[in-house]
């Protein structure tokens, strides 16, 4: 069964460093998303990506964040200069026109 | 701004019981509603998707209903099993952007099924 794959599963980084989180969406899906979940809180939408450009972004997705689809299969989230409050589980998701499927997440810890 | 609320926040029941989880949302102009399961430290597993034009969806022991006009959805779990223990999340997608819009999530119901 097709699934969304995320790497790495865990990442520890120093404050101020850049991190890149990677995702391989389901191959025939059109829409790609990033979400985050701070420990004990709701899953929050960050950004959606369609037709090689950002479709929508939340107020959380500021200039520190960027997304890219560098080739036909990968979808990445870059955080330029990490802050302590960026520590969270980051989920990638993809969908056709309806149901969204999520990856297992990358746990990012900023120290 | 869409807000999604889930009640109860936590529920513990003996194995075999039927149970209902509730979800409410403030803006009825939704594209669809999706129920997910999340195990501790894991990703989100899609359980059921209800399109805005539908009233309910069923998958095995799960049944989800949608009353868009009142801003409510319920997830019914029949004959609960210890393996059903997890956090159940409700999420809605707004109507305007359709497929491109993100989901708005509730905080979830943490369910424990006692053997």
The helix/strand class of chain A is mainly beta
Order of helices and strands of chain A: EEEEEEEEEEE
Low-confidence stretches of chain A: none
- Helix share, percent of chain B: under 10%
Q: Structural class of the secondary structure composition of chain B?
A: mainly beta
- Share of helix of chain A, binned: under 10%
How would you characterize the overall build of this protein?
With 111 residues, chain A is mainly β. Chain A has strands spanning 5-7, 10-13, 19-24, 31-37, 43-50, 53-57, 65-68, 75-79, 88-95, 100-102, 106-110. In chain A, strand 5 and strand 6 form a beta hairpin. The radius of gyration of chain A is 13 Å and the shape is globular. The relative contact order of chain A is 0.34. Chain B has no helices and eleven strands. The model of chain B has no long low-confidence stretch (mean pLDDT 94). In chain B, strands 2, 4, 5, 9, 10 and 11 form a six-stranded mixed β-sheet that branches. A five-stranded antiparallel β-sheet of chain B has the order 1-3-8-7-6, with no helix packed on it. The termini of chain B are far apart. With 115 residues, chain B is an all-beta fold. The A-B interface holds A 30-31, 33, 35, 41-48, 50, 55-56, 58, 91, 93, 95-105, 107 and B 32, 34, 36, 41-46, 49, 51, 89, 91, 97-108.
Short description:
By secondary structure, chain A is mainly β. Chain A has no helices and eleven strands. In chain B, a hairpin with a 4-residue loop joins strand 7 and strand 8 (72-77).
Q: How are the SSEs ordered, and which strands pair?
A:
The complex is a heterodimer of chains A (111) and B (115).
Chain A: E1 5-7, E2 10-13, E3 19-24, E4 31-37, E5 43-50, E6 53-57, E7 65-68, E8 75-79, E9 88-95, E10 100-102, E11 106-110
Parallel strand pairs in A: 2-11
Antiparallel strand pairs in A: 1-3, 3-8, 4-5, 4-9, 5-6, 7-8, 9-10, 9-11
Chain B: E1 4-7, E2 10-14, E3 19-25, E4 30-38, E5 44-51, E6 56-59, E7 62-67, E8 72-77, E9 86-94, E10 103-105, E11 109-114
Parallel strand pairs in B: 2-11
Antiparallel strand pairs in B: 1-3, 3-8, 4-5, 4-9, 6-7, 7-8, 9-10, 9-11
């Amino acid at each position: 069964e097709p699934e969304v794959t995320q790497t790495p599963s865990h990442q520890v980084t120093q404050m101020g460093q850049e991190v890149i989180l990677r995702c391989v969406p389901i191959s025939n899906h059109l829409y790609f998303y990033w979400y985050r979940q701070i420990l004990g809180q709701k899953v929050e939408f960050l950004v959606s990506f369609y037709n090689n450009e950002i479709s929508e972004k939340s107020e959380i997705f500021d200039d520190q964040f960027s997304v890219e689809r560098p080739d036909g299969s990968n979808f990445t989230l870059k955080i330029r200069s990490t802050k302590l409050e960026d520590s969270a589980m980051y989920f990638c998701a993809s969908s056709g026109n309806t149901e969204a499927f999520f990856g297992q997440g990358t746990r990012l810890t900023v120290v | 701004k869409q807000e999604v609320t889930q009640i109860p926040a936590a529920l513990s029941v003996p194995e075999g019981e039927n149970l209902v989880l509730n979800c409410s949302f403030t803006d009825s102009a939704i594209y669809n509603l999706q129920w997910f399961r999340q195990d501790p430290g894991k990703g989100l597993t899609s359980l059921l998707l209800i399109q805005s034009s539908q009233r309910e969806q069923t998958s095995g022991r799960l049944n989800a209903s949608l009353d868009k006009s009142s801003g409510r959805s319920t997830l019914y779990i029949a004959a609960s099993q210890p393996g059903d223990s997890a956090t159940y999340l409700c999420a809605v997608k707004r109507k305007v952007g359709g497929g491109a819009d993100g989901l708005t999530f509730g905080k979830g119901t943490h369910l424990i099924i006692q053997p």
